[in-house]
Design a protein that fits this description.
The protein is of the alpha+beta class. Helix content is 24%, strand content 32%. The protein has a six-stranded antiparallel sheet with strand order 18-19-20-27-22-25. A five-stranded mixed beta barrel has the order 6-9-7-8-10. The radius of gyration is 25 Å and the shape is globular.
Length: 478
């Protein structure tokens, strides 16, 4: 059977300030009304049944991914939570071991969660051809014909033709991969363009799970042995999460390209002319989204005067741009990015600096979606924080307590059902209730309309990790 494995553990740092650690690129609605993750599922669900789609992600992102799938009507996709982040070799290997258990001859399509494909029909046809190549024991990668001397991609050098099948409607040939190369400098990238036998490495793969694991045993034997132990530790009836995490953290953090593909002699390439982009930076939107008459990509509340070939992304506030050329401007509630388009590949350097300084702007937005609704930070100081909370009809927060903070709730819309140390209260619009530090409490919306509350937190520590959960409808632990 055919399985799709979607890699959804990255943070997409080059899309800061819209992307954050807790709201990564694949969950953003950058290209339309759907997230890039949902668009990835939409592309393959006609070829792969929903119950044979696997998403590999981190524990910190699993909740939001489940919510995104549920919002899009996908209820059967299987989510694999990595015990720790260890790059793509471990993530793909984890999925391969799980698939091998269910389907010993299963074929995997490995897809990044945050890529763009323009020609969906040809892409699906190409995957069908790749399936045939994978059945012949090859590890298949899709290569993209370069359109310019890009320095941000790895390259694949095409080798000899592999005669696996006769002429096909797509006029696609399979080639043995002669060489994987690193991201080149501009001069080398120009040489690759002129040579004609170099392709961009798309990061999209097809292979039979057992054949991939054979190559992993050859080139990453510790991964191979450890992943089977991890899956065993995570199994029912009593998962040993600590043991799984201990093994997983022992793996070298290495990509599948470096760890396996560059060493294997069984790698084949198909040329994929499908309008592909890895959407790797804000500047990449100019090749995907509609450009106006001045060559600008505009989204949101934007006004331009004498501005050309720029990307301008606004949320609530107005961006008024005058006299800009080849610039990127992105505005969010708590951060503003301004940089030349040619520097947009390096935005992750800003994120690195924010992390180094312990800045919250690298981790989360002021408005944070939750499985029960959302909250937004309105103001904060040394010993206080002010938020609004929206709780959807029929939803409730976990039964919880806080060691370091007290909370005061004011209902401004709807009606709250509040549990406080075993007692249950109804708090009407305009009323308020105090939640002392260390008390056990919960908010619930039993009504048919959205519940909105103002929350005032006071205490010596106001971090989101100061939560002990006793009951939770969404499977979250403390």
């Amino acid at each position: 059977m055919l399985h799709a494995v979607i890699l959804a553990g990255g943070s997409g740092t080059r899309f800061w300030p819209l992307s954050r650690e807790k709201m990564p690129k694949q969950l953003l609605h950058i290209l339309g009304d759907k997230s890039m993750l949902a668009m990835t599922v939409d592309r393959v669900v006609s070829l792969v049944p929903e119950e044979q789609i696997w998403t590999v992600t981190t524990r910190s992102q699993a909740g939001e991914i489940k919510r995104e799938f549920s919002n899009q009507g996908y209820t059967k996709i299987r989510i694999l939570e990595e015990p720790a982040g260890r790059n793509t070799a471990a993530a793909i290997g984890l999925a391969a071991v799980q698939i091998l258990r269910d389907d010993p001859e299963g074929i995997m399509i490995v897809l990044p969660a945050d890529h763009y494909i323009e020609d969906k029909a040809r892409f699906l046809d190409l995957l069908s051809v790749g399936r045939e190549v994978a059945q012949a024991k090859w590890l298949v990668t899709l290569g993209i014909t370069p359109t310019h001397p890009e320095t941000g991609y790895g390259y694949i050098r095409r080798g000899k033709s592999i005669d696996l099948f006769g002429p096909n409607d797509l006029e696609v040939e399979a080639f043995k991969v002669a060489q994987f190369t690193e991201k080149p400098n501009p001069e080398v990238a120009e040489e690759y363009m002129r040579a004609g036998d170099y392709f961009w490495n798309s990061g999209i793969f097809l292979w039979q799970a057992n054949h991939f694991l054979e190559e992993m045993q050859n080139f990453l034997p510790e991964h191979h042995k450890g992943l089977f132990e991890v899956v065993e530790a995570l199994g029912d009836p009593k998962p040993d999460l600590e043991r799984a995490k201990e093994i997983y953290e022992s793996f070298e953090a290495i990509s599948v390209d470096y760890g396996i593909m560059e060493s294997s002699k069984r790698v084949a390439m198909l040329s994929a002319e499908v309008g592909w982009s890895d959407v790797g930076s804000w500047a990449a939107l100019k090749g995907i989204m509609e450009n106006n008459k001045d060559g600008n990509v505009i989204k949101g509340n934007v006004l331009t005067v004498d501005t050309h070939r720029s990307v301008l992304y606004a949320q609530d506030r107005l961006i008024a741009a005058m006299g800009l050329e080849d610039m990127v401007v992105v505005d969010t509630d708590d951060a503003l990015l301004i940089c030349p388009e040619k520097e947009s590949q390096h935005v992750k350097g800003i994120v690195g600096q924010l992390i180094k300084e312990g800045r919250e702007e690298a981790v989360t937005h002021r408005k944070v979606p939750k499985p029960w609704g959302a909250y937004k930070v309105l103001d904060r100081g040394e010993a206080y924080q002010l938020k609004w909370l929206d709780v959807f009809p029929g939803e409730r927060l976990s039964l919880q307590s806080h060691e370091h903070r007290a909370e005061h709730w004011i209902v401004v819309a709807g009606r709250a059902t509040v549990t406080l140390d075993g007692r249950i209260f109804t708090v009407e619009q305009g009323e308020h209730i105090h939640i002392p530090r260390q008390s056990t409490h919960r908010i619930e919306n039993q009504g048919s309309e959205k519940l909105r509350m103002i929350e005032i937190q006071t205490g010596d520590y106001l971090g989101e990790d100061d939560i002990t959960r006793y009951e939770d409808d969404y499977g979250r632990s403390s």
